[in-house]
Amino acid sequence: MLFLKSMPVIASPTHYIFQIVRAGITFLACTQVEMPPLMGIEFLCRVADILSDYLGELNEDLIKDNFVIVYELLDEMIDNGFPLTTEPNILREMIAPPNIVSKMLSVVTGNSSNVSDILPGATASCVPWRPTDVKYANNEVYVDLVEEMDAIINRDGVLVKCEIYGEVQVNCLLSGLPDLTLSFANPSILHDVRFHPCVRFRPWESHQILSFVPPDGQFKLMSYRVKKLKSTPIYVKPQLTSDAGTCRISVMVGIRNDPGKTIDSIILQFQLPPCILSADLTSNHGTVNVLSNKICTWSIGRIPKDKAPSLSGTMVLETGLETLRVFPTFQVEFRIMGVALSGLQIDKLDLQNVPNRLYKGFRAVTRAGEYEVRS
Amino acid sequence: MAGIRLHVISPLVLVAVGKCARDPSVFVRKCAANALPKLHELRQEEITSAIEEIVGILLNDRSPGVVGAAAAAFASICPNNFTLIGRNYRNLCQILPDVEEWGQILLIEILLRYVVASHGLVKESIMSSLLCIESSHSEKDVFDVNVALEDNGIPSRTYDSELVNLVSRSYIEGLGEYLTRSSDTNARSSDLNGARFTSGKTNDDVKLLLQCTSPLLWSHNSAVVLAAAGVHWIMSPKEDVKRIVKPLLFILRSSGASKYVVLCNIQVFAKALPHLFVPHYEDFFVSSSDSYQSKALKLEILSSIVTESSISSVFKEFQDYIRDPDRRFAADTVAAIGLCARKLPKMANTCVEGLLALIRQELLTSDIESGNGEADVLIQSIISIKSIIKQDPSCHEKVIIQLFRSLDSIKVPEARVMIIWMVGEYSSVGVKIPRMLTTVLKYLAWCFKSEAVETKLQILNTTIKVLLCAKGGDMWTITRLFSYLLELAECDLNYDVRDRARFFKKLFSHNLCSQVPEETNALQENKDLPLVLVECIFRKQENLAASEPINDRFYLPGSLSQIVLHAAPGYEPLPKPCSSLCDDLGQFSNSIDRTTALGEEWTGSSSNGTDDPDTSGSLDEESGSNYDSQQSIPGLSDNSGTGDSASEGDRNCDPLIQISDAGIACSNENGASHSGFPDLEGMMSKRALESWLDEQPGSSSPSASEQIQVRQSSARISIGNIGRQVKAKSYTLLDPANGNGLKVYYSFSSEASTISPQLVCLETFFENCSSETMSEVTLVDEESHKALDLADLTLATTAR
């Protein structure tokens, strides 16, 4: 059973089951006949995304509380086993997200449905992701670069792999049917890209320019990958020595290359090997937690100016075990506001078919993705 | 309204849908397209053609949203109706990038099938290697093929040509066919002549398909990316296949579940064309958040794409993995090291040294009993060393000696067995080992009593092996040791060991009785029959080639079957190249050739895994059906002779249900929905099946009902063409002379059964050689009480 739990595709004698797990909730899809498995999995991911979008977050209680909306959403998203409407903006128009006002209204009127009666405008328009008549008093467009850094640092402290997985997220609050053109200052560093369906492929192929008619509201315009980066913003130096049944651990964390902005919410997490009976860990900065399943979390926050945070302690090994032979891997989390570590820069954003008063905003943030340090 | 699944109102709904399909509103047309599969599921024969017509109209639509829904309808209603696609091919290709993502996935697959069916495969693509290999197979032997390939100006391609061949063939034919087809490669290679291949550079349709799918590699839906990559993998010229690599690696970054699926597909790609992924080996480095399955797949991919330039960094990684807390993964890593070393013989020494160090380290800590995982790592590392040594035993003499030395400290029985096996196997390698032998054997005899059963057996085997190649003074010692061991073993608690001991004693009785080994005596005895037998048993093992177990089940990239490694219901391989081209020609339209691919139940082979039962099973089937068909001849000739009015019976065919006469078969047709489509059982709803079963009077035998629940019953009836170029070996059932002008022959078809991998497809060809019309042909299978009523066979006269 445990084995099945981690299998994304399960074959039973009569059925095939796809599963994804999000925030402790398992989403299942099942089929009897051949179909592309990624289609099922991708759809489940989409359902999970939209549910967490509607409900704010995803947990069992929230789904129980809002099961009406969940059913309504599923009804719109899939029809006869084929995905129907999965664009979040259109779903939002069809089914109003839960809020206090609608809850009050349903209690008072006894009408529990919040499916709108009119068809959303987008279904009829020639741009399926955008409603036809959007009007805003303040026209604004925000472009965010959200990057995640994946890195592997091996036992010898050598950077084996370091790459950035980034997304361009756009929050578009514009009237009418705007046509946007976004260009980068240095598109050549992009190793690989993926686009929202609204992006036209031609201009990208010829000039590496993103030309698109945006959906309304928040959406992910493109995602990209930048490979072979040379350095990481922080260093983590774990050291484990074991002798005569005990193991001494010390971990140092510090800034390697100052990105110019503060690095905050630094968290170090690692799973203690199963052969360790007990651990006594202390740190000179931040808090250390050891959970019952031997996951150890050290939340540092910001790195202070005067000292380098370090964690140290001793761990008792199983009886009969002299030295430690399996070593934990440290997962590092951090966040740097205002910097895109890949170095990608937005050159300019041109707009057509939009009113004159307009606010354009750009932001960038870098987070740690699969950033791990082996020891 | 289509959601109300009532047979009564379906004609009304159909009219409504038809009207909506011409509605000016895009959304209405889209909904009409969505309603079509629901209507089709009611399985009413009368409306099928009308539904297909509406699908055709909707496919011709100019709005991308409608086309997406129509593609979904097409895929579920009539996936083989290529004329519908042919009419709109260009339009569909151009609209493809604008279709919504879910529709894109299906539309890509439809277009691929259409292109293969109408234009054949691309000459420059990976699939074409099938052709050149097969043609050269018939002339030269395998070695020459490799030479020829290199001479053709592609030295950089270090792909495994056999594997590529296998992969591409299984895409087209499906697995069952590949296994049943025994040795008639020559016949087939002549079929696959150049006419079936088209050039990607000259054929506009192929070019268009590749052109319009390549932007989809940038889609943010990973399913679309994988589908598009599949098209490029199959259709695009080899030089351009590399463009799928980056997008494939990028979608690895999506969710954990899709990562596994993508890795499964990359694994096949990487095995067939390793050079594609060689520069990107870093992407397969394992991260601790991967699931175990992903980790194992990554290891496998790494070991298949590793090259001399990347080996050092890959080994560094492996060294880290060995220290991973997940010992199962660590054991896999050790196995991967062995694979790498076999692939790159230059690295073998480094590998072996690393592995030996690992073993020493494992032994030092010696807490093997505490965790199962540690033992696994140890065993796996010895297996790896063994496989490396096997390649070149004489180079690794020192390693062997070291292993012998560590024998005392290794406690895990499996690991001991392997080292003891090596004692016997490499007893004559080098200079030092023969000198050590007596000591080692003495040690083994000394600790024989405390060994596990498997170790005891292995010790006995090894002693004999050593004995056989022992010379001179050692002979005496070893013989003494051997008889001592036999005495011990004969009193063993385990009967297996006792039996083995007695067996050896009998074999060697003559040898042991003499006790005094003289040179001449030994020579004479070597010619003794028992000794020859022993020689055969124990010495020939060396010659067995170390064949890497290749998982030779390949399905289309991105399909469910590729993930679960068996043909899921509804899985269809690519259509036969150019098959629809022949249809279009229409020159043979008056010659009727009904191809009945009849999935037959396998006789009692429950295992569907290995190849051997497969082939033997199909052989059984062959003889069985031969017999059955003989039985059915009287029925056939009777019916064709009378030639009376055509009964309206459905093509009922259920090989598992007892039906004694044709009348019952006819009465069943109400319960069984129409079976005119190849995938009937897979698509048929469970309720329909059950209600059908309830009507069966004779289905009381438990085994039959059991089988039905797993739905092994199947009927596949498809209309082929006499102009088919594939001529599998066919067996004649009925002569025109005996059968009143009806000629019947059958062959094992080239398609995999869509219902279950345990079924064999049988094609039966009916041919009318007389000038009269034949109206009713019945095929009865006596042995397993199957009845196959082919009354609907409207055989027109043929001009033969």
Describe the structure.
The complex is a heterodimer of chains A (375) and B (800). By secondary structure, chain A is of the alpha+beta class. Chain A has helices at residues 2-5, 37-55, 60-65, 67-77, 88-94, 100-109, 201-207; strands spanning 9-11, 16-22, 25-31, 78-79, 82-83, 140-153, 159-173, 179-184, 192-195, 209-212, 217-226, 234-243, 246-255, 263-271, 276-283, 287-290, 295-301, 310-317, 329-337, 346-352, 359-374. Chain A folds into 3 domains: 9-124, Beta-Lactamase (2-Layer Sandwich), CATH 3.30.450; 139-229 and 341-374, Sandwich (Immunoglobulin-like), CATH 2.60.40; 234-337, Mu homology domain, subdomain B (Immunoglobulin-like), CATH 2.60.40. The radius of gyration of chain A is 25 Å and the shape is globular. The two termini of chain A are 32 Å apart. The model of chain A has no long low-confidence stretch (mean pLDDT 80). Among the domains of chain B are: 1-119, Serine Threonine Protein Phosphatase 5, Tetratricopeptide repeat, CATH 1.25.40; 393-514 and 528-542; 730-765, no CATH class. Chain B contains 36 helices and 10 strands. In chain B, the strands form 3 sheets. A 5-stranded antiparallel sheet of chain B has the order 5-3-8-7-6. In chain B, strands 4-10-9 form a 3-stranded antiparallel sheet. Chain B is elongated, with a radius of gyration of 32 Å. The two termini of chain B are 51 Å apart. Residues 130-159, 174-196, 513-527, 540-550, 582-728 and 780-800 of chain B have low confidence and may be disordered. Chains A and B meet through strand 2, helix 2, strand 5, strand 7 and strand 9 of A and helix 2, helix 4, helix 6, helix 13 and helix 14 of B.
